[in-house]
Automatic annotation (TrEMBL):
Key words, A-Z: Membrane, Transmembrane, Transmembrane helix
Highest taxon listed in the record's lineage: Eukaryota
Spans through the membrane: 85-109
Pfam families: Sulfotransfer_4
Protein's UniProt keywords contain Membrane: yes
Protein known as: Uncharacterized protein
Annotated organism of origin: Eucampia antarctica
Length: 118
């Protein structure tokens, strides 16, 4: 399956046709978080929002908060959409890297063989 199909399957709890339905996505998100919270002891699990910055993360890990280093916010919506586009592109382009040279070889071979007198 393509990356997109697999992603839709995972984010919708096995209902990829409901990929654009916010309630389906939200319900699966909540259900997934419940599974994680039930599977991991609370003293080993940090429920964290990156908007909280370094504080809760560093406290949980037992490290001092880095001074003068801003917390990295790397996954904006536009960036994630761009990354998904690149992954989808790779999914469709890599077969061409195999097929096109092979097709070129076959065409050249056929032309060469048809030019050779029998």
């Amino acid at each position: 399956p393509s990356f997109e199909a697999e992603y839709k399957e995972e984010t919708t709890g096995g209902k990829p046709d409901d990929y654009l339905d916010r309630e389906t996505l939200r319900a699966n998100y909540v259900e997934y978080n419940k599974k994680v919270q039930n599977a991991i002891p609370s003293n080993r699990l940090l429920t964290f929002n990156v908007k909280q910055g370094w504080g809760p993360l560093c406290e949980f890990l037992g490290h001092p908060v880095p001074e003068g280093i801003p917390f990295p916010h790397v996954h904006t919506r536009a960036k994630l959409q761009g990354e998904m586009f690149v992954l989808e592109l790779i999914t469709w382009i890599w077969p061409l890297a195999i097929i096109l040279p092979l097709a070129g070889f076959v065409i050249i071979w056929k032309r060469t063989m048809s030019a050779v007198p029998v």
